[in-house]
Amino acid sequence: AQKITQTQPGMFVQEKEAVTLDCTYDTSDPSYGLFWYKQPSSGEMIFLIYQGSYDQQNATEGRYSLNFQKARKSANLVISASQLGDSAMYFCAMREGRIQGAQKLVFGQGTRLTINP
Amino acid sequence: DTGVSQDPRHKITKRGQNVTFRCDPISEHNRLYWYRQTLGQGPEFLTYFQNEAQLEKSRLLSDRFSAERPKGSFSTLEIQRTEQGDSAMYLCASPDNEQFFGPGTRLTVL
Q1: Considering only CA atoms, which of B20, B89, B43 is closest in space to residue A37?
Q2: Which of A53, A70, B47, B98 lies 20 to 30 angstroms, CA to CA, from B110?
Q3: Chain B interface includes A47 (CB < 8 A)
Q4: CB A15 within 8 A of CB A116
Q5: A48: left (phi over 0), alpha (psi -120 to 50) or beta
Q6: DSSP state of A9
Q7: Are B42 and A91 a contacting pair at CB < 8 A?
Q8: A44-54 pLDDT tens trace
Q9: Cα–Cα distances in Å, from B50 out to A84, A88, B101, B106?
Q10: What's the Rg (C-alpha) of chain B?
Q11: Chain A closest CA to B16's CA: distance in Å?
């Protein structure tokens, strides 16, 4: 079963508009972490934001915020006031608990975001 | 710059050749991960090191793949007898909470 689902293969947004990228996840582990990464055409994976499963408040980092709805198992990324430089692939990822073991990330398929001037 | 470096950044090789990639993680991080990303997909976990011990390997890591981390510092990933299906971006991650990634090595097998 797919653990991370990103249902939007592509998104097109006008510059300065806000954009929401969807991510749903599936886990039975009560301890997990959710990540969003940006991958420009150069290929590097740029960490954007992190939300722990026990965090009470939604994570925010500058123009990025994570809309964490635990009961719905969703972790949508919101980018406010989009900029041309935001055009890239965006990946949602999950890390399951087990501090003593491999805390590997499981990634979704990604959403390609294009910001139009 | 995440502090994680990878070398080379690009590698073009002919089918059947051996290739080796290197990852230098953030110095105080004792965990190191390798991922593979094929075109149009998200990265997939390959293997994990805790210091010099390789503690977990994915089924994606066939017998042609070998990874090492001598002395618990840098790590190498070797692919023997490369195949066209090995063409991908190979990413190294040196985790803290955010699991920082290196810039990746893009492998093209002709």
Answers
A1: B43
A2: B47
A3: yes
A4: yes
A5: alpha
A6: S
A7: yes
A8: 899 999 999 99
A9: 39, 32, 16, 25
A10: 13
A11: 25
What span, in angstroms and rounded, lies between the C-alpha atoms of A66 and A34? 9
Instruction: Output phi, psi for A110, to 5 deg.
Output: 95, 155
Question: Residue A53 in contact with residue A75, Cβ under 8 Å?
Answer: no
Q: Which of B43, B6, B90, B2 is nearest to A47 (CA)?
A: B2
Which residues of chain B lie closer than 8 angstroms to A47, CB-CB? 2, 98-101
Please write the tens of the pLDDT for every residue from A51-78. 999 998 999 999 999 999 999 999 999 9
Which of B31, B41, B104 lies at the smallest CB-CB distance from A43? B104
Which residue of B29, B55, B96, B97 is the best one to mutate when testing the A interface, meaning the one whose CB has the most A CBs within 10 A?
B97
What residues contact A86, with CB distance under 8 A and at least 6 apart? A19, A38, A79, A113, A115
Interface contact B93-A4, CB threshold 8 A: no
Distance (Å) of CA B77 to CA A27, A64, B59, B109: 30, 34, 15, 16
**CB-based contact, A8 to chain B, within 8 Å:** no
Considering only CB atoms, which chain A residues are within 8 Å of B107?
none
Report pLDDT for B28: 72
pLDDT on residue B96:
64
